[in-house]
Design brief:
By secondary structure, the chain is of the alpha/beta class. It has 2 domains: 4-70 and 327-435, Aspartate Aminotransferase, domain 1 (Alpha-Beta Complex), CATH 3.90.1150.10; 72-324, Aspartate Aminotransferase, domain 2. The chain has helices at residues 4-16, 72-84, 93-105, 118-133, 158-162, 173-176, 187-197, 222-232, 289-292, 311-324, 329-350, 376-380, 384-396, 417-435; strands at 39-43, 46-49, 54-57, 111-115, 137-141, 179-182, 201-206, 236-240, 269-273, 283-287, 356-360, 363-367, 399-400, 409-410. Strands 4-10-9-8-7-5-6 form a 7-stranded mixed β-sheet, with helices on both faces. A 4-stranded mixed β-sheet has the order 1-2-3-13. A hairpin with a 2-residue loop joins β11 (356-360) and β12 (363-367). α2 runs antiparallel to α10 and α3 (93-105) runs parallel beside α10 (311-324). The structure holds pyridoxal-5'-phosphate (PLP). GO terms for molecular function: glutamate-1-semialdehyde 2,1-aminomutase activity; pyridoxal phosphate binding; transaminase activity. It is an enzyme of class 5 (isomerase). Pathway: Porphyrin-containing compound metabolism; protoporphyrin-IX biosynthesis; 5-aminolevulinate from L-glutamyl-tRNA(Glu): step 2/2.
């Protein structure tokens, strides 16, 4: 497969855009470097690059594109927004409708505020927690990524990990010292941290189902104990559901059937993003009414946004949720993901390539290792060079994976049985080549 135009554009991009990309996770640094692919068009589960190569898309733009590219309902919503004016700087009725729908699906959110990205959503939940508790410290889990705000960019998952930047430069030690990082899926670290610093901890922040060092479920009882211990310390529980909300079912982790006792895992605050904007920029945070009342104009904690709740993002989000409410949507994505994972595993086994697959409904991660992956350390222990080799072989066969061993494969409502068959065949040929 030739990607001459992509290579040319990459040369050009580097002269104007730092590193040639507007988000480091789009670069191919973690998979051997070189020019990333420049795309020009997407339709359904496929997209096309500037050299006219076609790919089946499992990146789904790192999660948001759950209905596939250019879904007619979402396109129609965006066109409507464009016709009516994209920004007024005033309140609109659309924002109320999306807030209502988020609250109905995620009942721990009494009140919602829209922002422009997951990063902003997370950042502000921390501000709310600090304002409410009068405490400064945050506990987070190794490998969970919560966006690029200073506080949460410590030991932070997929993007930074693959680039070898566990702690970003430019973050003052005074800020880093307010963050305590403990292992996911293991309660001793959290218990010790709370014993030592509990009375200074404003919040414990977690991806309740992890999407940033592969797809990783919390072990049975982990979230329940996390919530209990955090509350006993007088701190708040913040769920970062930027990936997990509306990914596995119509709702979020906190309403997912895998967790039978939903009262026991109810967070105080939740951060959202990605899917809820239907592919346009968005973030949202919400939670208990008394906590959300800390935010201006009601309370003393300030947070604002020129673009926040803009009609285009909100209407696209409403259209996306409408598609996700159609019967059978998640069951279908799960059935396809299951078949795909079975095919990948059988083929890897046949060619003697160690492969651990973590699948949750229609999303999964592939780890080149022969041990389970339940925490960041185990994910780090998978073979990055083998992943990079596999990534390149799949790319040349027209299958687009996220360019990092830590990132997930996402099914969309647009993937078809034929896509799955083509992907399994491409993987079989790739594993065969790797084994040779
Ligand atoms: N939280 C999680 C769990 C994420 O995966 C991400 C992005 O990948 C973010 C927060 C940050 O969201 P955004 O990139 O929209 O700022």
């Amino acid at each position: 497969m030739q990607r001459i135009r992509s290579a040319q554009l990459y040369e050009e991009a580097q002269q104007h855009i730092v590193g040639g990309v507007n988000s480091p996770s789009r670069s191919f640094k973690a998979v051997g470097g070189g020019a990333p692919v420049f795309m020009k068009k997407g339709q359904g589960a496929r997209f096309w690059d500037v050299d006219d190569n076609q790919y089946i898309d499992y990146l789904a733009a790192f999660g948001p594109i759950i209905t596939g590219h250019a879904h007619p309902k979402i396109t129609e919503a965006i066109v409507r927004a464009a016709h009516d004016g994209t920004l007024y700087g005033t309140a609109t009725e659309h924002e109320i409708r999306l807030a209502e729908q988020l609250k109905a699906a995620i009942p721990s959110m009494d009140k919602v505020r829209f922002v422009n990205s997951g990063t902003e959503a997370v950042m502000t939940t921390i501000r709310v927690a600090r304002a409410f508790t009068g405490r400064n410290k945050i506990i987070k889990f190794a490998g969970c990524y919560h966006g690029h705000a200073d506080l949460v960019l410590v030991a932070a998952g997929s993007g930074p990990s693959t680039l070898g930047i566990p702690d970003s430069a430019g973050i003052p030690p005074s800020i880093a010292s307010e963050v305590i990082t403990v292992p996911f899926n293991e309660l001793d670290g959290l218990r010790l941290a709370l014993e030592r610093w509990g009375d200074q901890v404003a919040a414990v922040m977690v991806e309740p189902i992890v999407g940033n060092f592969g797809m990783v479920m919390p072990k049975p009882g982990f979230l329940e104990a996390l919530c209990k211990m955090t509350r006993e310390a007088g701190a708040l529980v913040i769920y970062d559901e930027v990936i997990s909300a509306f990914r596995f079912h119509y709702g979020s982790s906190q309403t997912f059937s895998a967790f039978p006792d939903q009262d026991a895992i109810r967070p105080d605050l939740t951060a959202l993003g990605k899917i809820i904007g239907g592919g346009l920029p968005i973030g949202a945070y919400g939670g208990r009414a008394d906590l959300m009342a800390m935010i201006a104009p009601l309370g003393p904690a300030y947070q604002a946004g020129t673009m926040a709740g803009n009609p285009a993002s909100v209407l696209a989000g409403l259209a996306c949720l409408e598609v996700l409410r159609e019967p059978g949507v998640y069951t279908r994505m799960e059935a396809m993901a299951t078949r795909l994972c079975e095919g990948l595993q059988a083929s890897a086994d046949k060619h003697g390539i160690p492969l651990t697959i973590n699948r949750i409904v229609g999303a999964f991660s592939t780890h080149f290792c022969d041990h389970p992956v339940t925490n960041y350390e185990e994910a780090q222990g998978s073979d990055g060079e083998q992943f990079a080799h596999f990534f390149r072989l799949m790319l040349d066969r027209g299958i687009y994976l996220a360019p990092s061993k830590y990132e997930a494969w996402f099914l969309t409502t647009a993937h078809t049985d034929a896509d799955i068959e083509e992907t399994v065949a491409a993987a079989d040929a790739s594993f065969q080549e790797m084994a040779a």
